[in-house]
Write a structure and sequence with these properties.
Elements: E1 4-5, E2 12-13, E3 19-20, E4 23-24, H1 26-55, H2 60-112, H3 129-160, H4 167-197, E5 199-200, E6 206-207, H5 209-229, H6 243-260, H7 282-298, H8 302-308, H9 314-319, H10 339-361, H11 368-396, E7 404-410, E8 416-419, E9 424-428, E10 437-439, E11 442-450, E12 453-461, E13 466-471, H12 481-484, E14 486-491, H13 502-525, H14 532-557, H15 562-585, H16 592-605, H17 612-628
Transmembrane segments: 20-42, 62-83, 95-117, 129-150, 171-191, 211-235, 290-308, 342-359, 371-391, 502-522, 534-554, 566-590
Organism: Nothobranchius furzeri (Turquoise killifish)
Region (Disordered): 620-641
Length: 641
């Protein structure tokens, strides 16, 4: 679809073919695509750490490390996606191709979780773990490539659909887009843990990770199909060339030129990037200066993500040692992560319509960088809460899992078969005992069968408990199993309730709203027009680095107590928060459009008969404008911090 220009206003209108309530119809497909894609991503991520621990049988540290390596990869690949889209394929084709890679990755994960594939002895555990590990790692790599690669493209592609006369609609689109991310995340983190908790299998029933990965895979296919269906309605901007490549070359030239002219005989220049002026356009140099200023400010930010992304690893593992019985419903450990999107969906509107306006009314200038600083502080507070909960667990805890384990001792002089509707203990020989098997939390009914004898009994199981049941020698036809069979509690159920995790989720999510939502907008508003994607990729890179820091700190610190690790992370973020607040104090907001317009005007003036002296003077003033950014208010009028 081509650009249309309003003959009266001269403004571009990209999507004029079909509009609904002032919005391009194509937006509907993009929003639905994002919802399905985020469902797919967060659904798979929600059960990932438990898959590592209980299916692949890795320990907590390895599970946490691989989880964060995967998340880090997901946020490294946006750079790749941005380069491919901008310089080669364009956003539309990049989204299509990488979505296919993404869907293949999800399918590979689902297949890797089918234990029957290698369960040759049919005992319920895979016999060739290497197959499952390799296939799941390949799957995760493809998912990281796909989800990260399309991430900087989808939002920008949505933004592209609006014409210049649809500024208001475009802003609303970005809010709806963020709500879709969290709507998808909310639904999937409720649903996939339920699927995982089911028992499934051909030869033997085990926890159904294949279904928990299979549904996200199906949703990714739906996302792709929805996106393709809308293809006739999209405005498809042509690739603008490799801006990232240009930026790198320009910076490289500035550094090498500075080095070549290091002798004192050459006069110094105001900014080291000015050494690129000998070869590169002044506008490009000015734009790079703006980007570098923001990137410098990004240096401390990864620490926020280091804490934030432990919701899916350490906090989920913490929940496995807690009691998820909420009376009417039983919450799975991985379902606790839903608290985050639920709070996002409530806190974002409250912040925007109540808290921020109230702060403004009190005469406080709560600038983006101040909000981000408060967000960091709240995340540190969340980890203090996590540490307190952990101490509580350690005091009460006798064991390490939320599964209930049960075994039977057959005291009869003949074999007996024991089963529940989901678990088969098999035949227990006379005077023998069975292996421990996992039983679902809540009430379970056991069926006993031995020759003519057939009876049933039921028991309640608390989170994490373990029991041994004795089948007495006196059990005979007509016996009441409910009364005859006695059980010994090997391990007491978890006693610390999962509700205690709510405060830490509240603080981390309030921190996210202040830090992440604001940071996204800040990155957009402070970026030059042609480098918005570059800064978005830079912003996402801070998430990747944050996840690598988890690995490094956890590996280097090797703290014996989990609560001390939480305190360490909280302290580190607090220190970083102080450093960031100092850096933010010295940052002055700029209006990139204004600065760019000045440079462009100057280029236009070249055609006029301006004398050289006047032009030089103007250029000097512009450079000073950019380097000192000394206006007074934010957004057009700039302000400190
Ligand atoms: C990584 C982003 C902050 C964003 N995540 C969320 O909004 C979570 C679900 N609260 C995303 O783009 O996935």
């Amino acid at each position: 679809m081509a650009d249309h220009e309003d003959p009266k206003t001269g403004k571009k209108n990209k999507g004029t073919s079909k509009e609904v309530c002032g919005y391009p119809l194509s937006i509907f497909f993009i929003v639905v695509n994002e919802f399905c894609e985020r469902f797919s991503y967060y659904g798979m991520r929600a059960v990932l750490v438990l898959y590592f621990k209980y299916f692949l049988r890795w320990d907590d540290d390895l599970a946490t490390s691989i989880y964060h390596t995967f998340v880090a990869l997901c946020y490294l690949t946006p750079i790749l996606g941005a380069i491919v889209a901008d310089s080669w394929l364009g956003k539309f084709k990049t989204i299509i191709y990488l979505s296919i890679v993404y869907a293949i990755g999800q399918v590979a994960m689902a297949v890797s979780a089918i234990h029957d594939i290698t369960d040759t002895d049919r005992d319920g555990t895979p016999n060739n773990m290497t197959f499952h590990v390799v296939l799941s790692m390949v799957g995760l790599f493809l998912i990281a490539l796909g989800t990260g690669g399309i991430k900087p493209c989808v939002a920008a592609f949505g933004g592209d659909q609006f014409g210049d006369h649809q500024e208001r609609q475009r802003r609303t689109f970005f809010s709806v887009f963020y709500l879709c991310i969290n709507g998808g995340s909310l639904l999937s983190t409720i649903i996939t843990p339920i699927l995982r908790a089911q028992n499934c299998g051909i030869y033997s029933k085990q926890k159904c990770y294949s279904l928990a990965f299979g549904v996200p895979a199906a949703l990714m296919v739906v996302a792709l199909v929805v996106f393709i269906v809308g293809s006739g309605m999209y405005y498809k901007a042509k690739p603008e060339g490799n801006i990232m490549g240009d930026v790198c070359k320009c910076i490289g030239f500035a550094i090498s030129n500075r080095y070549k002219h290091r002798s004192k005989q050459y006069p110094s220049r105001e900014h080291w990037m000015d050494w690129a002026e000998d070869k590169y356009d002044k506008l490009l140099i000015a734009q790079i200066k703006m980007v570098l200023k923001v990137l410098f400010l990004y240096i401390p930010l990864p620490m926020f993500w280091t804490l934030f992304d432990q919701k899916g690893s350490r906090w989920t593992l913490q929940a496995t040692t807690m009691d998820g019985n909420f009376g009417a419903i039983v919450i799975q450990p991985d379902q606790m992560q839903t608290v985050n999107p639920i709070l996002i969906l409530t806190l974002v509107p409250i912040m925007d319509s109540v808290i921020y306006p109230l702060i403004k009314k009190c005469g406080l200038n709560f600038t983006p960088l101040k909000r981000m600083t408060v967000g960091m502080f709240l995340a540190a507070l969340a980890f203090v809460c996590a540490a307190v909960v952990q101490i509580e667990i350690d005091v009460s805890r006798k064991h390490l899992t939320y599964f209930n384990l049960t075994q039977f001792v057959n005291g009869m002089n003949k074999p007996v078969n024991v089963s529940t509707s989901e678990v088969v203990f098999g035949q227990i020989e006379k005077f023998h005992y069975s292996n421990y098997s996992q039983i679902r939390n809540g009430r379970a009914t056991f069926f006993l069968q031995s020759g003519q004898l057939s009876c049933a009994f039921s028991r309640d199981f608390g989170f994490g408990s373990s029991y041994t049941f004795f089948i007495p020698s006196t059990l005979s036809l007509g016996s009441n199993c409910q009364e005859s069979i006695t059980g010994a509690e090997d391990i007491k159920p978890n006693s610390v309730h999962m509700a205690l995790q709510v405060p830490q989720y509240f603080f981390i999510t309030a921190g996210e709203v202040m830090f992440s939502v604001t940071g996204l907008e800040f990155s957009y508003s402070q970026a030059p027009s042609n480098m918005k994607a570059v800064l978005q990729a830079g912003w996402l890179l801070t998430v990747a680095i944050g996840n690598f820091i988890v690995l490094i700190v956890a590996e280097v610190a090797k703290l014996p107590k989990q609560w001390t690790e939480y305190v360490l992370f909280a302290s580190l973020l607090l220190c970083v928060c102080i450093i960031f607040s100092i850096m933010a104090y010295f940052y002055t907001y700029i209006d990139p459009t204004e600065i760019e317009a000045k440079f462009r005007r100057n280029v236009g003036d070249d055609d006029d008969d301006k004398n050289d002296k006047q032009r030089k003077l103007e250029m000097e003033m512009m450079k000073r404008d950019l380097d000192r950014s000394d206006d007074e208010h934010y957004k057009g009028k700039q302000t400190k911090m």
